[in-house]
Amino acid sequence: MKTVNFSCINSIEAHDSLESIKQAYLPEVCFIGRSNVGKSSFINAILNRKRIATVSNSPGHTKKIFFYTIDNSIILVDLPGYGYAKTNKKKIQKLSDLLNIYFTTRNNLKMIFILVDSRRNLMRSDLDMISFLKNKNLDYLIVFNKADKMSKQDKLIIEKGMSDDDTKYLKKIIFCSAKTKEGIKEIKKEIIKILN
Ligand code: GDP
C-alpha cells in the first residue's frame, strides 16, 4: 500500500495558460469550485501548511492554475474558482477556455474534487461543471466544504438528497472543513487510493 507524505512539496508551478505546461507523468488530481468556497484553505489543510495556497477574502482572485508536486508521487492542482458574478465576460471566457483545455488535455488526470459551500448546496454553476465532467467521462467527487457551519441534521438532509437523486450527480460526497479538519484525512485517503 503506497503512502504519501503530504507535507513534502517538491515543486510549485503557477500558469495562466496551458501552452507553457508540459505533460506530466505523475498521476494528478485537481480541486475546483466556486470562488470563495474555501478552496485555498482546504488545500493548505491537505498540505499541512498555513499559507501555501493563497487565501484571500476577495472572491475570484485566483486566476492561475497551481501545480503542487507532492512526495514525488502525485500532482495536486488548484484550478481557478468559477462563478464569480463581478468578473467581466472576457475574463469568464478566458477562464472557461482554460478549464476546457485543462480537462480535455491532461491525460494523467485521475480525479476531480468539486468543492461546494455546504451552506449554499449545489448552485447552477456547480451543476454545469458536474454535467460538463460527466459528458467528458471524467471521475469526480463532491466535497461539501465549510462543514463546520452545518448541523448533523443538515448533513442528513444532503445525504438523503444524494440517495434520492436519480440524476446520479452526487456519486459520493465528503464533508470537510479547513477550520476543524473534518474530512481532510478522508480526502487524503481518496488521493492515495488513486495511486494503488
Ligand atoms: P477560495 O477563494 O475558494 O480559495 O477561498 P479561501 O480559502 O480564500 O476562503 C474564503 C473564505 O472562507 C475565507 O474568509 C476563509 O476564512 C473562509 N473559510 C475557508 N475555509 C473554511 C472552513 O472550513 N470553514 C469556515 N467556516 N470558513 C472557511
Describe the overall structure.
- This protein is α/β, with parallel strands linked by helices and 196 residues long.
- 32% of the residues lie in helices and 21% in strands.
- The chain has 5 helices and 7 strands, in the order ββαββαβαβαβα.
- It has helices at 39-46, 89-105, 124-135, 152-164, 184-195, and strands at residues 9-15, 28-33, 65-70, 74-78, 109-117, 140-145, 173-175.
Quick overview:
By secondary structure, this protein is α/β, with parallel strands linked by helices. The protein contains five helices and seven strands. A seven-stranded mixed β-sheet has the order 1-3-4-2-5-6-7, with helices on both faces.
Spatial separation of the terminal alpha carbons: 6 Å
SSE series: EEHEEHEHEHEH
| Mean pLDDT value | 86
- Describe the strand arrangement of the main beta sheet, using strand numbers: 1-3-4-2-5-6-7
Low-confidence stretches: none
Number of helices: 5
Rg, rounded, reads 16 Å
* 3D shape: globular
Bound molecules: guanosine-5'-diphosphate
What percent of residues adopt helix (DSSP H or I)?
A: 25-40%
- Largest β sheet strand count, sense and barrel closure: 7 strands, mixed
Q: Briefly note the structural class of the backbone.
A: alpha/beta
> Per DSSP, what share of the residues sits in E-state strands of 2 or more residues?
15-25%
- Number of DSSP strand runs: 7
